[in-house]
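Lab manual, section 2.4: Encoding a predicted structure.

Procedure: take the sequence of the chain (1188 residues), apply the prediction step described in section 2.3, and record the output as structure tokens. A sample record is shown.
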Amino acid sequence: MGDHFEKGQQALLNEGEENEMEIFGYRTQSCRKTLCLAGSIFSFGILPLVFYWRPAWHVWANCIPCSLQEADVVLLRTTDEFQTYSWKKVVWICLSALNSAFQLIPDHPLITDEEYIINRAIRKPDLKVRCIKVQKIRYVWNNLEGQFQKIGSLEDWLSSAKIHVKFGSGLTTEEQEIRRLICGPNTIDVEITPIWKLLIKELFSVCLWFSEDYKEYAFAIIIMSIISIALTVYDLREQSVKLHHLVESHNSITVSVCEKKAGVQELESRFLVPGDLLILTGNKAQMPCDAILLDGSCVVDEGMLTGESIPVTKTPLPKMDSSVPWKTQSEADYKRHVLFCGTEVIQARGACSGTVKAVVLQTGFNTAKGDLVRSILYPKPMNFKLYRDAIMFLLCLVGTATIGMIYTLCVYVLSGEPPEEVVKKALDVITIAVPPALPAALTTGIIYAQRRLKKRGIFCISPQRINVCGQLNLVCFDKTGTLTRDGLDLWGVVPCDRSGFQEVHNFASGKALPWGPLYAAMASCHSLILLDGTIHGDPLDLKMFEATTWEMVVSGHDFHIKGAPACAMVVKPCKPASQVPVAGIAILHQFPFSSALQRMTVIAQEMGGDWLAFMKGAPERVASFCQPETVPTSFVSELQIYTTQGFRVIGLAYKKLEMDHHTTAFMRDQVESDLIFLGLLIFENRLKEETKPALEELISARIRTVMITGDNLQTAITVARKSGMVSESQKVILIEANETTESSSASISWQLVEEKKHIAYRNQDNYINIREEVSDNSREGSYHFALSGKSFQVISQHFGSLLPKILINGTIFARMSPGQKSSLVEEFQKLDYFVGMCGDGANDCGALKMAHVGISLSEQEASVASPFTSKTPNIECVPHLIKEGRAALVTSFCMFKYMALYSMIQYVGVLLLYWETNSLSNYQFLFQDLAITTLIGVTMNLNGAYSKLVPFRPAGRLISPPLLLSVILNILLSLAMHIVGFILVQRQPWYSMGMHSICTVQNETTSKLTISPTAPDKIGSNGVFTSFENTTIWFLGTINCIIVALVFSKGKPFRQPTYTNYIFVLVLVIQLSVCLFILFADIPELYRRLDLLCTPVLWRVYIVIMLGSNFIVSLVVEEAIIENRALWMIIKRCFGYQSKSQYRIWQRALANDPSWPPINQTSYSDMPACGRGVSYSNPVFESNEEQL
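Recorded output:
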């Protein structure tokens, strides 16, 4: 209905972003609104409830489509596969409110400049702004472009020069007021969900039970609902308190803002607007917004964002003349100039002007911290079929209930019951057949799993992903800091001169490194900072600097270098040494390290001497910036010697600079050219002790492990072998792809990596030993592909058809940029893998968010980086998470099956009694629902995860043959038992004695019966009367609920055995004992309360025999058929079933391809078999959870 729109009536909101939505314009019609209001009254509030669950229906019923420009209501629909609807009212903001502060007229110069979205949004001459608020973000109507646009941040198209000129001296008070009114406050507010929303869901059932005079039951449900709501509110409260702690400091910071005319003013952070000029002073300050650094430099702790608590140096945005947007003006990442909200500024150092200035980029929920809070408040829905299957199952139950309703109507109408009684009974069938506690039952397993994970130091901000953890079959790992230790040990340095590499200088020998440019580079080419007398920074930088035995000071205390900033960082020898001819080196300017660029550069000055530029980074990147004659001819083979042993290798280079510029005037490309190569730093990068056992556990469970690293390819291969990711018997095939050149098209070559011989390979980008001859049997063995980020890029562009084939066996991906890491994870997902990503933050943020399950090894409890954060700094958390995910998934299925069976048992019993126009009484319902099912529901989920990972996953779907068969067979067994009981009781010789209470007299045989003189009366107004059928059905149903709970409570291989769940076992034993006590007790008062009749002891024994038979058959069916994996595998083979997952299809295809893998071959993109002709695509990606 909402799909046929003319131009102007629909548009895209946040186009190309993660939260992209379609937006449709509607105008409210008063006659439609009146009709809906009448419908709400006459339906006793059911219509608003329907509209609450179906927002699109609300809009379609109340409004008519119109252009977005005229709309007073907008309908929003997400563009993902869920197509979730929501609606928002269009609100007007009146600028006339500002007239009291200053005279604002339509042609005021402040609002006539239409370069900015804010001014384009102001409708003239009435000075009004139309806006909507979606997921905490405000959007205004851009009158010039005719679309809704996000407000609360500076425009992306602004150039750096424009930012410096327009905002470099601050905003005027008038501009601030206008922006404050339109953008809203710079706050991150978290509200608690209103209680009425939670209450309204239970209202329908409770009203029905009151109308049927089930007062006790209704009261019990109300008490349970109050307890349930109290717990829900407590959980919400706990979560919102956590979120409040996360954001409270943000909303109450006092900042210094520079205004154009008034100068520096103290201001509360909530009054900040995009464009304000912040003055940062002193140390240790929380950022209340996102801001672009214009002047000075800052050292920031970005742990909240990335999970890595290594200080990051921020540099000012250079003022360039070009009109290119500021974010894309240089190849370096623009984030190096941005101070993010929620991060802590550890140190702010002014440049020549002495002050550190930053312009506010984004406020409120637009900021990095706001994004974290929004990701918690509005988690991305998981496309997990479990939830869709649950809805389908509910619809089946609704269908079953409808059949029951028709049957009830027929029986009660034919028996001449009054119409209101007929309607009540028919509606009652729905509340019995569709368990209201079903959605809650699905989430209890997740809640318990979340608590167990928390005890292990694993925190989760997206609980619905815990079930997805149970389906993971591929896990990607970052290398440095994840598989290997964070702290690197400097093993040695390989200096070089014009003649080539010299002997390795080993620091363990205790001999000092001779003075020279290499020594100076080690002392100054880093981003370390001095804080409270302690040096902080990247572990690699720390180890390198410590090896020089120099110290750090800030200039200005005891000396000052001419032309250097007053507080420049200075490194100098600890004590004047004869072998060091300089008194110290001042670090004047930094181009910080970037993963994408794989290098960092500093401009430094020897005290009283030359200006120098030093570069440090990946050896091949550093060498590419050097004069070719300074790079030794043995560069490749020398590098190979160390990388094959698993060392981390860093290249160093330098050059002298002309001193006629100011340091900030140097452009990066000027500095990073014609360098002189200095040598290699060799770091020992040891595996963490926990890495190998954790990887072995995953591999033995048939979960694929993949390494994605920014480090050297050969180092990555060595670490993969040492960690067990690639076993000794398996081969590694190197894939190298080259871009199109003038002489040839893009090429791809395949070489087998040789472990023993050291042969220099011709291409400088890869440092791998190649085996020239390959025996035929190598093709049959297991193999892994290894490739670099550059090759991955070329393959993606030119060899689309080969990409899925490579990914099926691709294990080592080195020199990957953060963007390539995200792309790789996405490509794995296209092959229908359930992908986990484990990293330590920073470079992995994109991949962590892209993966189905992202795990960040971090000290933080929550970070923007990923849904899971582990305080344990090693990969042991990955198997734990998978185990808990599997346990939670199986628990969800157990609860689902149990709730479905409990409903069906009650449904069957009630329908049989309806045949006699009878039913269960209030207390009978109450006992079944509260004393049995509720207690089982709460305790059944307490089983922990099984300690061993098995080599197969639990079913990922509710509508899978074993699960459906289990439910159907158990329903049929219960149905058969109830019918047998119902018919047999009517055939007993004592049944025809007037349906009076029959009790055995002590020491008498069953043939001598006393007959109670009371005749059966109707009890209350709900048509329930005592009968032998009622008594039999109630006992069978109640004890059957206990039996089903025991049968369905799964233990191994995904959960701890049932007997270890002591509380659950105790509950079952007590419940069974109570039921058997009631059955055999002969206490008239108890029977009267529960509306039961006494029956002969023999009949009670028959009831126990029926239940015992049911239990044995049910248990045998469950264990011998449903849980028999071998049997299902045979059935699959017999029916020729094969998994439809993309990766399975490719695996089968490659297994039958004798030419795969191609070894010692080179292919070109213009060859028919390699181009895009057979490029694969998976347009409708739905994460098929086909089983292993």
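Check your result against the sample. DSSP finds 37 helices and 47 strands in the chain.
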